[in-house]
Specification:
The chain is built from 21 helices and 21 strands. With about 625 residues, it is of the alpha+beta class. The two termini are about 20 Å apart. This is Lycopene beta-cyclase.
Length: about 625
């Protein structure tokens, strides 16, 4: 389970990136806002009192960079707009337009301030792909609406994943060591009232985004990259030979390729999806507090015992907790839930009210009165099931992969994103796919393979990600499902216990968001043998249509595993002998088989220090004594 990251832009615009000014959803009527404001003034909630007592001077752009109560209310308004929509939300503002002809022959060509091979919109995570492309000799620019710097809250990741950045060549191991704010072991997967599993070296590093982004900025600058800070994009024009950005401060930038790294609420992606309502959403709240005396371990996931009523809806709460790098007694804990957007869904402030009540029970041995609350964290993560053929809608190029979208002239290509709909993780997914994506983008630019068909190969169908949609559905509480209140907790416990019995080759990839055919078959088989009576409840929870759809992806997962295992070794030696365009296509196909089957995952035991293994603190013995039988 990836550590959750969050996205919220500064007011007045609410958007998902660092570059655009745009309201993507309808806001409740002014009268309703005024009534809500009067009620809040008359009787402030505990959340309001807590948040207004905390300094928010450290807010930045990017995921998890906003902490204020006003920003929370704006995000709740946005969330209400999503929930109140019947099927689709309002038609989004048009920010990308297709222009016939060549930019080089247009009237505005002479007004371009800078010309690039690649421009990245949104720099918090975009700087990683930008630096990787700069390392390959491309001229790259970044547009960031605010100041490009990392947030205070750490990113949690495993060392094995972090070393992918070293392999790509954008940072050194010394840079990584300087960016590590905290190290902790062991790591718990817990299920209230059922049991717990203890693992090591899973999400056990706390990385300081502020330090890491600063390292990346220096590296990017040394490679000749240019960052346009404090400026937003007012429009994008796609010509036959260039993608052109009009900045709010009247600058015009042109590039051969434009990458949208603006996250979940990118207005460009909203435009392409035409206001389509999300199929599922993860709501997350949490805080970083000081005062935890026992603070040497983490929770990768902890499941509450039963579904809970929240307002007019039901929710099953999950938790994560990690030691923070700001002090030995500082700890960050997240509470999250999965919902289908509909009227009556709980608001973030309602979840925070539950969080304050439940967190002391979850973090056994602490009292809220004895904790110093350093900051409050919150966010929403929408996810969409299936793929959309973007070429049908308009004649432009846009390919969305991970949290990136690529543009080139003529028409759109589609991609569904490479982050798991279960974890909604960003940084870990980035490290895993950065090498593949940077190499593919460079090859496309170098070979002038910038049409929609070729760019779409950078983000192919990946059955392991599509198959993980079932897990998100199974973890979403529904009143009409007619299952026992503790079903979700029981289902997770049974699956995790089966994976633990099957060993690290099954459990560890899953905990790092990698779904593989063999481990999945073994786990499902063991669950059916040891807990056959749970099968009917699964049908009730997720529904027959979803199971049938998942069966197709499950079959394709097995097919991709076969192709990557047996066909890839035969084809790969022959690829270098074919023409450049065919070579590009076959390389992307081989990558699709490998990553789509999860066979890119590296099962390794990196050398760790005694502190990381928990030695000297009784960590290893504790892990053994607490593990399931």
């Amino acid at each position: 389970m990836m550590a959750l990251q969050f996205k919220l832009e500064q007011y007045p615009p609410i958007c998902g990136g660092g570059s655009f000014s745009y309201y993507p959803f309808a806001i409740p009527p002014i009268g309703r806002q005024r009534n809500q404001s009067l009620q809040a003034q008359a009787l402030p909630s505990r959340t309001q009192r807590i948040m207004e007592s905390i300094s928010v001077s450290g807010e930045v752009g990017g995921a998890g960079g906003s902490y204020s109560y006003d920003a929370l209310k704006r995000l709740d308004q946005l969330w209400s707009g999503i929930c109140s929509a019947q099927t689709d939300v309002l038609e989004p503002q048009k920010v990308v337009s297709s222009v016939p002809g060549l930019f080089s022959q247009s009237d505005v060509a002479g007004k371009a301030v800078e010309t690039f091979d690649v421009i990245v919109c949104g720099g918090t995570l975009g700087i990683f792909i930008a630096t990787a492309l700069s390392c390959k000799g491309l001229r790259v620019g970044i547009v960031e609406r605010g100041v490009l710097k990392g947030r205070e809250q750490e990113w949690n990741i495993s060392r094995q994943e972090l070393l992918e950045l070293v392999e790509v060549g954008i940072i050194t191991e010394d840079d990584i060591e300087q960016s590590i704010a905290s190290i902790f072991n062991p790591n718990r997967c817990g299920f209230e009232g059922k049991g717990e599993i203890w693992v090591e070296d899973i999400l056990n590093l706390g990385i300081s985004p502020a330090k890491l982004i600063e390292v990346m900025k220096k590296r990017f600058d040394s490679l000749g990259g240019i960052i346009f800070e404090g400026d937003s994009v007012s429009g994008i024009s796609i010509y036959e030979d260039a993608a052109v950005l009009q900045l709010a401060k009247a600058k015009i930038l042109s590039s051969r390729l434009l990458i949208d790294a603006m996250g979940n609420f990118s207005p460009v992606v909203k435009q392409i999806r035409r206001g389509k309502k999300p199929d599922g959403v993860c709501l997350v709240v949490g805080s970083c507090c000081r005062g935890f005396k026992d603070n040497s371990t983490s929770d990768v996931i902890f499941s509450s015992s039963a579904v809970k009523e929240v307002g007019e809806s039901e929710a099953h709460y999950f938790w994560e907790a990690f030691p923070a790098g700001s002090g030995p007694m500082d700890r960050t804990s997240y509470m999250f839930t999965y919902v289908d957007p509909h009227p009556g869904c709980p608001k973030l402030e309602e979840l925070l009210e539950d969080y304050w009540d439940l967190m002391p029970n979850y973090q056994v041995g602490v009292s809220l009165d004895n904790l110093e609350i350093l900051r409050v964290i919150y966010g929403i993560f929408p996810t969409y099931r299936g793929r959309i053929d973007l070429t049908v809608h308009c004649q432009r190029l846009l390919i969305e992969f991970y949290r990136f979208s690529c543009y080139c002239p003529e028409q759109f290509g589609d991609a569904s994103g490479i982050q798991s709909p279960v974890s909604f993780g960003g940084f870990g997914s980035l490290t895993r796919h950065l090498g593949r994506l940077s190499a593919g983008i460079y090859e496309a630019i170098n070979g002038d393979l910038l049409d929609s068909n070729n760019l779409s190969l950078l983000n192919p169908y990946m059955p392991n990600l599509s198959a993980s949609w079932l897990f998100q559905r199974a973890m979403s509480a529904k009143k009409e499902s007619n299952v026992s209140p503790d079903f979700i907790n029981e289902l997770l416990y049974v699956n995790f216990r089966s994976m633990q019995r099957l060993g690290d080759p099954v459990l560890r990839p899953f905990l790092q968001d990698v779904i593989q055919f063999g481990p999945l078959v073994k786990t499902l088989g063991l669950v059916m043998i040891t807990k056959p009576l749970i099968i009917p409840s699964i049908f009730k929870q997720v529904g027959v249509p979803v199971l049938l759809d998942w069966s197709g992806h499950f079959f394709m997962l097995g097919y991709y595993t076969f192709l990557s295992t047996f066909v890839d070794p035969v084809i790969r030696p022959l690829v270098n002998a074919v023409p450049a365009k065919m070579k590009y296509k076959w390389r992307r196909q081989l990558e699709a088989w490998q990553y789509g089957s999860g066979l890119d995952y590296k099962m390794s035991n990196p050398n760790t220090t005694k502190a990381e293994r928990g030695m000297g603190t009784g960590g290893e013995a504790w892990a053994e004594s607490k593990s399931l039988p």
